[in-house]
């Protein structure tokens, strides 16, 4: 807190506070105004480009004001620092006021969308409140923000609330600093705000308001599929306890096996469906303003049908995040599948007409409203583990909040990093902070590229930042690479290429606060594929890195990818390549039975002739091969990530594998000398090996955690060796 002592203002008649953090656009100035009035302080509060400024007339109550200030902050606010300096007033202010921002400063700032707060939820369910059952209730502490913004500054005319002028009652709340809806740009009520209706496949309205909710709930209970317009896109909903309904959704959406997220009506259902070591941590995440999907272990006796996440022991759960979802779940009173409302391979729909067109034949009815979604934002995804939480997809509820950079980045010039082509995000970095966009999807989709271009312009407006350089992935075939070169040429600014796996490790350093001058570290980059030195395809690398430099220490041996990209969807191809590369008489192994013929003969011929069979040192494809050998994945994977997920149900279990294959498959060998280990040696003396460790007894292999421990064990040996 502030370094305030009474003597700080002994030579002046006031005090000036500089407050930094998440203090703009979150109701912080009204909070300061109310707090100052409580302590009978005089002065003013205002925004500027760096945060909030509070100027106070001298008073003994300032000490109490500063003590309470961080304790009762608005739900979306966060104070990072408070500094104080003496201030001289020309004359004593008559009261405490909220002043307009200084010249040239944006008076209103944009923050992330936030789940319905407790106060709005109470009003939503109060029959005596004028917003009773109003599905668009919100206030300064909750509701849509980023997803409704068109341009800066963030005020109502620049959002999708522009078509809804405030009624006298809402306007009075909006103008009252003591009201929870003071300057809440999306505020509305049934008299002046958006409205809800139910539509059939032809686009005809069949019910409105409460009747629309009632009919949509009845459709869900009857096993139908409902397209629901949300905050950042459409969802497809169905009864998560009804196997036939979920199977129908999978068939219509062409999504045969990928896990589906489930929205719980309340904590009672949550307790029946999941099991976690720390329920409090789970509830804290689910009830937080971002309200993400959280991946947790499914309960063995869960009432959810098996079609939710076939073959997996994890389930993604969430609680209602907006008023419409609260009302819908209250009426249905059972868990609902809430999956993205998009056809296979396309981003989720945004407009009503797009949803009617693209989800025809998928949804049975559409629950629509007339508040436009301007910025697409998927549900964020977090995994809860014994060690804490791990962000898997940062989107709704987190974007566009800035993240602090580690020490040493205080005067960083503005840089725009454009990311990779798959699962694209971009990052805007300047001074001591970075802003990462929401998950955008594949840049191969024209709609996604258009969204990216709009967001690039919007982020520049939000933060007033003009990039001085562009950073791109080194892969020359990436659209993002070509886009960055063109943008740099257009603006006549530098364009820097970055190795894919160097970027991974540097992001890891920044995430963990490694100082800019902290020196080099040895990092492991294990993924699918990325562009390496000399155009090599990497994916299982040991690198010596800092924020600017990257040295390749070693990695997995390069093995062919039979069929190129197809190998990522058919694990048996990777098993074939590993066996062919390292085991001369592999055809006699029982693991070879899982490789279909005559495709194998054709592919081996292509590998020999180097036809569509690039070499890659990919850890992802290596584990594909092991999964295929253990027959824990299907020959054809229908969704990316299926192979890694397939290991989780086997975690800590034992299964049979040929000892000869286990001993001789040197696909998992490394380039550094060994010094013992928990597996069979699979390379001649002088090189180390890493293999899936096994319990005592021939042919027994332990899956999951020991596999990960083996990786860490052998890499630790590599680190010690390279340091010698």
Automatic annotation (TrEMBL):
<dbReference type="GO" id="GO:0008270">
    <property type="term" value="F:zinc ion binding"/>
</dbReference>
<dbReference type="InterPro" id="IPR041440">
    <property type="entry name" value="HypF_C"/>
</dbReference>
<keyword id="KW-0436">Ligase</keyword>
<keyword id="KW-0378">Hydrolase</keyword>
<comment type="pathway">
    <text>Protein modification; [NiFe] hydrogenase maturation.</text>
</comment>
<dbReference type="InterPro" id="IPR011125">
    <property type="entry name" value="Znf_HypF"/>
</dbReference>
<keyword id="KW-0862">Zinc</keyword>
<dbReference type="Pfam" id="PF07503">
    <property type="entry name" value="zf-HYPF"/>
</dbReference>
<dbReference type="GO" id="GO:0016874">
    <property type="term" value="F:ligase activity"/>
</dbReference>
<dbReference type="Pfam" id="PF22521">
    <property type="entry name" value="HypF_C_2"/>
</dbReference>
<dbReference type="GO" id="GO:0003725">
    <property type="term" value="F:double-stranded RNA binding"/>
</dbReference>
<dbReference type="GO" id="GO:0016743">
    <property type="term" value="F:carboxyl- or carbamoyltransferase activity"/>
</dbReference>
<dbReference type="InterPro" id="IPR017968">
    <property type="entry name" value="Acylphosphatase_CS"/>
</dbReference>
<dbReference type="InterPro" id="IPR055128">
    <property type="entry name" value="HypF_C_2"/>
</dbReference>
<dbReference type="InterPro" id="IPR004421">
    <property type="entry name" value="Carbamoyltransferase_HypF"/>
</dbReference>
<protein>
    <recommendedName>
        <fullName>Carbamoyltransferase HypF</fullName>
        <ecNumber>6.2.-.-</ecNumber>
    </recommendedName>
</protein>
<dbReference type="Pfam" id="PF17788">
    <property type="entry name" value="HypF_C"/>
</dbReference>
<dbReference type="Pfam" id="PF00708">
    <property type="entry name" value="Acylphosphatase"/>
</dbReference>
<dbReference type="InterPro" id="IPR001792">
    <property type="entry name" value="Acylphosphatase-like_dom"/>
</dbReference>
<dbReference type="InterPro" id="IPR036046">
    <property type="entry name" value="Acylphosphatase-like_dom_sf"/>
</dbReference>
<dbReference type="GO" id="GO:0051604">
    <property type="term" value="P:protein maturation"/>
</dbReference>
<keyword id="KW-0863">Zinc-finger</keyword>
<dbReference type="InterPro" id="IPR006070">
    <property type="entry name" value="Sua5-like_dom"/>
</dbReference>
<dbReference type="InterPro" id="IPR051060">
    <property type="entry name" value="Carbamoyltrans_HypF-like"/>
</dbReference>
<dbReference type="GO" id="GO:0003998">
    <property type="term" value="F:acylphosphatase activity"/>
</dbReference>
<keyword id="KW-0808">Transferase</keyword>
<feature type="active site">
    <location>
        <position position="47"/>
    </location>
</feature>
<comment type="function">
    <text>Involved in the maturation of [NiFe] hydrogenases. Along with HypE, it catalyzes the synthesis of the CN ligands of the active site iron of [NiFe]-hydrogenases. HypF functions as a carbamoyl transferase using carbamoylphosphate as a substrate and transferring the carboxamido moiety in an ATP-dependent reaction to the thiolate of the C-terminal cysteine of HypE yielding a protein-S-carboxamide.</text>
</comment>
<feature type="domain" description="Acylphosphatase-like">
    <location>
        <begin position="14"/>
        <end position="100"/>
    </location>
</feature>
<feature type="active site">
    <location>
        <position position="29"/>
    </location>
</feature>
<dbReference type="Pfam" id="PF01300">
    <property type="entry name" value="Sua5_yciO_yrdC"/>
</dbReference>
<keyword id="KW-0479">Metal-binding</keyword>
<dbReference type="InterPro" id="IPR017945">
    <property type="entry name" value="DHBP_synth_RibB-like_a/b_dom"/>
</dbReference>
<comment type="similarity">
    <text>Belongs to the carbamoyltransferase HypF family.</text>
</comment>
<feature type="domain" description="YrdC-like">
    <location>
        <begin position="210"/>
        <end position="397"/>
    </location>
</feature>
């Amino acid at each position: 807190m502030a370094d305030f002592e009474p003597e700080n203002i002994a030579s002046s008649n006031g005090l000036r506070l500089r407050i930094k953090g998440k203090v703009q656009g979150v109701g912080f100035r009204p909070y300061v105004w109310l707090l100052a009035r409580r302590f009978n302080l005089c002065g003013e509060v205002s925004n500027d480009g760096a945060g909030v400024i509070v100027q106070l007339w001298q008073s003994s109550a300032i000490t109490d004001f500063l003590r309470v200030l961080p304790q009762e902050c608005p739900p979306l606010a966060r104070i990072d620092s408070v500094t104080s300096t003496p201030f001289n007033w020309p004359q004593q202010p008559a009261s405490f006021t909220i002043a307009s921002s200084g010249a040239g400063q944006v008076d209103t700032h944009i923050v992330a969308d936030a789940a319905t707060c407790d106060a709005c939820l109470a009003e939503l369910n109060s029959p005596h409140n004028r917003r009773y059952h109003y599905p668009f209730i919100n206030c300064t502490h909750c509701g849509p923000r980023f997803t409704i913004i068109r341009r800066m500054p963030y005020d109502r005319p620049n959002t999708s609330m522009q078509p809804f002028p405030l009624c006298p009652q809402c306007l009075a709340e909006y103008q009252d600093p003591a009201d929870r809806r003071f300057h809440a740009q999306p505020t509305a009520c049934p008299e002046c705000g958006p409205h809800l209706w139910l539509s059939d496949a032809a686009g005809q309205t069949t019910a409105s308001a409460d009747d629309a909710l009632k009919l949509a709930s009845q459709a869900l209970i009857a096993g139908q599929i409902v397209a629901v317009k949300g905050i950042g896109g459409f969802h497809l909903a169905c009864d998560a306890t009804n196997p036939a309904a979920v199977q129908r959704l999978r068939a219509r959406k062409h999504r045969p096996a990928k896990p589906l997220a489930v929205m719980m009506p309340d904590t009672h259902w949550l307790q029946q469906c999941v099991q976690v070591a720390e329920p409090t941590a789970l509830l804290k995440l689910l009830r937080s303003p971002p309200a993400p999907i959280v991946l947790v272990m499914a309960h063995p006796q869960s009432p959810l049908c098996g079609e939710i996440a076939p073959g997996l022991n994890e389930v993604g759960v969430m609680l209602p995040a907006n008023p419409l979802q609260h009302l819908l779940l209250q009426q249905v009173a059972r868990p609902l599948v809430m999956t993205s409302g998009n056809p296979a391979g396309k981003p989720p729909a945004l407009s009503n007409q797009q949803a009617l067109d693209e989800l025809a034949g998928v949804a049975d009815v559409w629950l629509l409203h007339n508040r436009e979604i301007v910025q697409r934002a998927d549900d964020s995804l977090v995994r809860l583990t014994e060690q804490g939480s791990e962000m898997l997809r940062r989107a709704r509820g987190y974007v566009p909040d800035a993240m602090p950079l580690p020490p040493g980045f205080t005067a960083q010039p503005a840089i725009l990093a454009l990311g990779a082509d798959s699962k694209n995000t971009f990052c805007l970095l300047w001074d001591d902070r970075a802003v990462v966009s929401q998950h955008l999807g594949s840049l191969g989709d024209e709609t996604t590229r258009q969204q990216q271009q709009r967001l690039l312009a919007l982020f520049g407006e939000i933060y007033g930042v003009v990039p001085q350089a562009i950073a791109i992935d080194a892969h020359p075939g990436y659209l993002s690479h070509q886009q960055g070169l063109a943008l740099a040429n257009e603006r006549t600014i530098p364009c820097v290429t970055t190795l894919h796996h160097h970027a991974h490790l540097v992001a890891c350093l920044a995430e963990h606060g490694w100082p800019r001058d902290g020196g080099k570290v040895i990092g492991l980059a294990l993924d699918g594929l990325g562009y390496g030195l000399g155009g090599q395809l990497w994916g299982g690398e040991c690198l010596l890195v800092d924020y600017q430099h990257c040295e390749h220490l070693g990695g997995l041996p390069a093995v062919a990818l039979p069929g190129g990209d197809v190998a990522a969807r058919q694990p048996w191809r990777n098993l074939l390549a590993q066996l062919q590369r390292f085991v001369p008489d592999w055809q006699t192994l029982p693991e070879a039975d899982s490789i279909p013929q005559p495709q194998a003969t054709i592919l081996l011929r292509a590998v020999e002739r180097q036809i569509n069979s690039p070499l890659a040192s990919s850890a992802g494809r290596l584990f594909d091969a092991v999964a295929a050998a253990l027959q824990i994945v299907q020959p054809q994977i229908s969704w990316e990530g299926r192979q890694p997920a397939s290991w989780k149900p086997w975690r800590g279990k034992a299964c049979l594998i040929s000892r000869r294959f286990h001993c001789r498959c040197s696909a998992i060998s490394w380039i550094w000398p060994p010094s013992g280990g928990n597996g069979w040696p699979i390379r001649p003396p002088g090189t180390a090996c890493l293999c899936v460790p096994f319990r005592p007894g021939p042919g027994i292999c332990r899956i999951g955690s020991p596999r990960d421990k083996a990786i860490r064990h052998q890499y630790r040996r590599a680190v010690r060796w390279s340091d010698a």
